Amino acid sequence: MLKQNKEKGGFYNKLFDYISSLLLLFSIM
Fold it and tell me: Is this model's pTM higher than 0.85 or not?
């Protein structure tokens, strides 16, 4: 259960990183 939550959190962290890098790219453009 704990491991599953950790994996889910890691997924959201990756998603957040991906979105913030996309926003950064668009702000540069």
Answer: no
